[in-house]
Design brief:
The structure holds 3 protein chains of 3 kinds.
Chain A lengths: L1 E8 L8 E8 L6 H14 L26 E2 L2 E2 L21 E5 L8 E3 L2 E2 L2 H8 L21 H11 L6 H5 L6 H13 L7 H14 L10 H5 L7 H18 L1
Parallel strand pairs in A: 1-5
Antiparallel strand pairs in A: 1-2, 3-4, 3-5, 6-7
Helix pairs in contact in A: 2-6, 3-5, 5-6, 5-8, 6-8
Chain B lengths: L11 H11 L5 H4 L3 E5 L3 H13 L2 E5 L17 E2 L11 H11 L6 H20 L25 E2 L5 H18 L3 E4 L2 E9 L2 E9 L5 E5 L2 E4 L20 H8 L4 E2 L4 E7 L22 E5 L17 E2 L1 H5 L9 H13 L16 E4 L1 H7 L1 H19 L8 E10 L2 E2 L12 E3 L17 H23 L10 H18 L5 E2 H16 L5 H21 E2 L9 H25 L23 H4 L1 E6 L8 E6 L14
Parallel strand pairs in B: 1-2, 1-9, 2-5, 9-17, 18-19
Antiparallel strand pairs in B: 3-4, 6-7, 7-8, 10-16, 10-20, 11-15, 12-13, 12-14, 14-15, 20-21
Chain C lengths: L1 H19 L5 H13 L2 H31 L14 H4 L1 H20 L10 E2 L2 E2 L1 H9 L2 H28 L8 H27 L6
Helix pairs in contact in C: 1-3, 1-7, 1-8, 5-7, 6-8, 7-8
Classes of the chains: A alpha+beta, B alpha/beta, C mainly alpha.
Chain lengths: 252, 643, 207
């Protein structure tokens, strides 16, 4: 089938970008990224016709877990399908003659490096600021010494399933990172091991989140709808509770 | 090349303890003066970087991804083994050791494997303390499952994403040390060469993948945890950025490469659907606990709706051939059996590849009938969803189609008991080394080995190197750095000067096809010799016809890729050479000349119970072969039988 | 945002209850107005508090809005929303509408600065009732108020549930029910406020 692709092309971090159109022939079994592989092969084979060169895009595991692939596809991060990363989106979701616009994740905290590649290191910096339980290697008690109720363990897992792709930020009308930070904070707040550092963790992580230039949450819910791992908005409610708890605790 | 395994003497249960006591310690106050470079941030690298920093070393960690959390360890689905015996079903350190040596088809080093089994229990403790949300029972204790043919339930798991959860644990430990200023993390940074000073590994040369800056890093020791080389096959379950470059550059600097021909072909992957295919997706091995593998007995029904084929017309070939293990035979056995039935014309793939329908059914209808759809959804829901996303078919309604794919590489840089290569100061961890899995890795053992190396082995052994063999300070001004940097720049320029018409992808795809056809699931002398002719030809074509766009000083994914493919093209030759040299069948290495009438692998312990270690001699000369004999004092050499 | 908003919603509900007393007749309504006036210092305290809440709410809204604008310097060429609502997306506009309305409303009733019905005295107290009823018989004034009430409805429809999430209570099994409270409060408030003027316009309530 024939697809018309409008792709954001930007030569470097400080270059001006713009959408450029390409016509491409694909089959329904291809993944969305394989379509880009085919496009790039076309562009590489015709350097005279396409002096702009192939399209840079981030990808790695191509099985929906590493969180490296990004792309905003027709205005939705990771494209139209529920709980599906860009790499797992297949062209059978489209039909002959479709026109698809592909842009990079857009946020001040995710500057564009080239074409569809953005810098998401702000997420790492948030996690440096307390996104851990302080346990030295070798200092752990026996794993079964601390039973954890299945309900709590399952809920913690639901939050821990976050793959750190940044779709929540890209989808949010405010480019807010509350769902991501909420998931990280909630995972550790839900397990007993995370209790000791609970107060300091949330405060520091949110401070860094603010300093990185993410927007504020106004509860649109776009993050949840775009999240390929279906992290619930409950993470944000939980994050707010944790913040309130921390405020009370530090006031003591 | 001297291959001294440095395995301690005495009873195997006491060796690691004894060795830990025998090793020299670094004075706590001196640790901060030692700089250690860790290349890779997966389970091995991430765990090592964090733990070494906790001990006080000055650690720099490098990864090619934009975050350490994206290292390919993240993609492991099934689980991690540990000899906890929480299920009281007869497991023990000794049994895990025994199973691993046997599963590896007697080509691994007993002492290393025993240590692995010993520290496996500490790993689970460590991960739980970090907050890793393992599956639990209603009573709040940890749940286990049997996995990959093990007859005890020793596998700990976190739904279908154990790898991600364990990596997030290691990543959090790493974050803690980054936060403390003890680890400097360098993301989107690729190691392009190893620097040796007076024969010791004393630094690396890197390229910043965003700015293109080439940089020198002098240090007191180097740890390579750069993963496996499965992408030499082009199509594999590895991440697209997984590559052999760091390990291969170390090899070219003198590190021996052991058993490169040992590759693991995972039996349950989603089949190839067309020539554009960029990678293969694994479906966790745990599916074989409830799924039954079959093909229609009637070849003309290859494309018929499988649900309409009556029971008596189904060929449950694993259950028939291996009555005691059935669908749970080890990976290499299951993979070869699938290849065999497809080669015989029973395959059921929707698309033909080279005139063959390469797929078999993995059917859950019986399990759904027995346990109910909800129970099956509970166990495999996310895997079923993933399958449906990729193929458009629901495994609740129709059997999955699966076919083996390259998944893991057991070969790697040779290391001694201390995880140090033959180049002093160069340590190698995780999939990048050769040590623990022999010729075949058991399911749920890769995560165990990565974390064992990173958390519990290297933190001790590196101290011994620094305390005993270390050569004193070296700076980035040393002539060895000048030379290495010059070579890296020259190679970069050479790649960028490629201005042919053919994208690098095409060469990689062709290389992959050669490797899959002649050095894949089944190998023979004739084919391997043919591959050894085809690979240099392809390499020549590559340097004449490939095109690499862009510049050196910018984000240039095509330049990165071209460098990695160029290395794969040299590396592939060594793999075929090793496969040719190993004139026996063992584990993942199946030489068609050596099989029983029923098609089972036949080992030759007399001549091949050794690690084959290759030493680089120059680009125009074949590498030389060295052997480290594998002695089996505890697990008796027997023929593996899963019948 | 949430705390100040919650305070303002509390006021709105009280205020609406007051207005609904128009149906109780002239005496009752005027008595209610007189009661409020009689509070004296307390009334001013309440007004100051209210003003404080409003200023804090508006200031943090402006700040939040600026931060959110800044957080995405380059807009998408194509942006498709899957979950949000028109009223969530227009919070800042409905907010400004309400602010403008509040100024107008104070000028209208509190200060009597508009050229509308002159306030007289009746039975010893200010005849707020008559002024109110006559004013809303003016279709133009009614339309203006009605438009503002649509703004308030939309604002609250998003704001109230949003507040529950910010306060952390709207999750798990409480998520579904509480997510419905916002739109309900929004509609109820809008309707509750517009019924008395509508009754005046339709002469159901008259002088």
């Amino acid at each position: 089938m024939k697809i018309k692709l409008n792709v954001w092309r930007q030569a470097g971090p400080n270059a001006t970008g713009g959408l450029k159109s390409y016509d491409i022939e694909v089959t329904e079994h291809m993944s969305f990224l394989e379509m880009f592989d085919v496009l790039n092969e076309q562009l590489l084979r015709n350097p005279d016709k396409h002096p702009e060169g192939p399209v840079a895009f981030d990808h790695d595991c191509r099985e929906g877990i590493c969180g490296m692939c990004s792309m905003v596809i027709d205005g939705v991060p990771h494209g139209p399908n529920k709980a599906t990363t860009t790499c797992q989106l297949h062209m059978r979701s489209y039909k002959d003659g479709d026109e698809i616009t592909v842009e990079p994740f857009r946020a001040k905290a995710f500057p564009v490096l080239r074409d569809l590649v953005v810098d998401r290191s702000s997420f790492d910096r948030i996690q440096h600021a307390g996104g851990y339980i302080s346990v030295r290697t070798g200092a752990a008690p026996d794993a079964n010494a601390l039973p954890i109720g299945k309900a709590d363990a399952d809920e913690a897992f639901d939050y821990a399933a976050c793959i750190g792709c940044g779709a929540c930020v890209a989808a949010c009308p405010n480019a807010s990172a509350m769902l991501f930070v909420g998931a990280k904070v909630s995972h550790l707040a839900k397990v007993p091991q995370g209790q000791v550092e609970r107060v300091g963790r949330v405060t520091r992580m949110v401070d860094v989140m603010d300093a990185e230039g993410f927007g504020g949450c106004t509860n649109h819910g776009e993050c949840e709808a775009a999240c390929p791992k279906e992290i619930s908005l409950d993470a944000i409610a939980m994050l707010n509770t944790e913040l309130a708890r921390a405020a009370v605790a530090s006031a003591k | 090349m001297k291959l001294d395994s440095k395995v301690p003497s005495g009873p195997i249960e006491e060796r690691w303890d004894k060795h830990r006591f025998a090793m020299k310690l670094v004075n706590p106050a001196n640790k901060r003066k030692f700089k250690v470079l860790v290349v890779g941030s997966g389970l091995g690298g991430g765990a090592a970087a964090a733990t070494l920093a906790e001990l006080g070393y000055d650690v720099h960690c490098f990864c090619v991804q934009d975050s350490p959390r994206r290292a390919h360890s993240i993609a492991a689905q099934g689980g991690i083994n540990a000899a906890k015996n929480y299920q009281n079903d007869g497991d023990s350190v000794y049994r895990l050791f025994y199973d691993t040596v046997k599963g590896g088809d007697f080509r691994s080093r007993e002492s290393n494997v025993y240590r692995l089994a010993q520290v496996s229990v500490n790993i689970i403790d460590q991960c739980v303390a970090q907050g890793v949300p393992f599956a639990r029972e209603y009573g709040g204790l940890l749940a286990n499952r049997s996995f990959g043919g093990a007859q005890v339930s020793r596998t700990f798991y976190a739904r279908g994403q154990t790898g991600q959860q364990l990596l997030l644990g290691a990543y959090s430990a790493l974050n803690r040390m980054i936060d403390a200023g003890k680890v400097k993390m360098h993301t989107r940074t690729e190691m392009l060469d190893l620097v040796l000073v007076d024969g010791h590994a004393r630094g690396i040369i890197t390229r910043d993948l965003v700015t293109g800056e080439i940089k020198r890093w002098a240090a007191d020791a180097v740890c390579l945890a750069s993963g496996g080389y499965g992408n030499v096959f082009y199509l594999s379950t590895n991440a697209k950025n997984s590559n052999v470059t760091a390990a291969f550059r170390a090899y070219k600097r003198g590190a021996g490469f052991a058993n490169p021909c040992y590759t693991q072909i995972h039996p349950t992957c989603i089949p190839v659907s067309g020539g554009f295919q960029s990678k293969l997706t694994l479906m966790s091995e745990s599916l074989r606990n409830d799924g039954r593998v079959w093909v229609p007995r009637d070849k003309s029904k290859a494309t018929a709706d499988p649900t309409t084929i009556p029971e008596e017309e189904r060929y449950y070939y694993l259950e028939e051939r291996y009555p005691s293990f059935g669908n749970l035979v080890p990976r290499d056995v299951a993979s070869r059996a699938a290849k065999k039935v497809c080669d015989e014309g029973y395959g059921v793939a929707k698309h033909e590849v080279d005139g063959q329908r390469n797929a078999v059914y993995l059917d859950f209808a019986h399990a759904i009938k027995r346990d109910g759809e909800d129970a099956i959804r509970d166990r495999y829901g996310n895997l079923f969803d993933m399958y449906e996303r990729i193929t458009g078919e629901s495994p609740y309604k129709t059997p999955m189609r699966i076919y083996p794919a390259v998944h893991y590489t057991m070969g790697g840089l040779w290391v001694d008991y201390n995880l140090m290569s033959n180049v002093p100061g160069l340590h190698v961890l995780g999939e990048a080394n050769f040590s623990d899995h022999g010729a075949n890795r058991l399911g749920a053992s890769a995560l165990m080995q990565g974390l064992a190396d990173g958390y519990f082995v290297i933190p001790y052994t590196i101290g011994n190197y620094l305390a005993t063999e270390h050569q004193g300070p070296v700076t980035e001004d040393h002539a060895a750095f000048d030379e290495a940097e010059k070579e890296v720049r020259a190679k970069t320029q050479k790649l960028l000067s490629l201005s042919g018409k053919t994208p690098v992808d095409e060469f990689h795809r062709k290389l992959g096809k050669i490797m899959w056809d002649y050095c894949g699931m089944a190998r023979n002398e004739e084919g391997l010799k043919k591959a050894l002719e085809l690979i240099p030809e392809l390499r020549k074509q590559f340097w004449a016809e490939a095109t690499v766009p862009g510049k050196a000083d910018e984000l240039n994914p095509w330049l990165e890729y071209a460098g990695r493919v160029a290395d794969f093209m040299e590396f592939a030759e060594m793999m075929c050479r090793d496969a040719l040299e190993r004139d026996e069948s063992c584990g993942g290495h199946f030489r068609e000349e050596h099989q029983t009438e029923e098609g089972e692998a036949v080992r030759n312990d007399e001549d091949y119970a050794h690690a084959a270690v290759w030493e680089y001699q120059g680009d125009d000369k074949p590498p030389t072969l060295h052997k480290e004999p594998m002695k089996f004092e505890y697990v008796k050499l027997t023929t593996r039988s899963y019948k | 945002m949430a705390l100040t908003g919650l305070g303002l919603v509390g006021f709105l509900v009280g205020h609406m209850a007051g207005h609904l007393q128009i149906f109780a007749g002239k005496e009752a309504y005027n008595a209610y107005a007189a009661f409020l006036q009689s509070l004296g210092g307390a009334l001013w305290l309440a007004r100051a508090g209210l003003l404080g809440l409003l200023v804090a709410h508006v200031m943090s809204a402006i700040k939040l809005n600026a931060r959110n604008q800044e957080a995405r310097p380059q807009a998408y060429a194509v942006k498709t929303n899957k979950a949000t609502t028109p009223y969530a997306l227009s919070m800042i506009y409905s907010g400004y509408t309400i602010l403008a309305f509040v100024v107008f409303h104070i000028a209208h009733f509190t200060l009597g600065a508009l050229p509308t019905t002159e306030m007289t005295e009746s039975g010893g107290v200010r005849d707020v009732y008559t002024a109110y009823v006559l004013d809303f018989q003016n279709p133009l004034l009614f339309a203006l108020y009605a438009a503002a009430m649509v703004g308030i409805s939309m604002h609250l429809a998003h704001a109230v549930s949003s507040t529950f999430r910010t306060l952390g209570v709207m999750r798990g099994k409480y998520r579904e029910p509480l997510s419905k409270v916002g739109p309900l409060v929004g509609i109820a408030t809008g309707v509750g406020f517009i019924i008395p003027p509508l009754a005046c316009l339709l002469r159901i309530v008259s002088v």
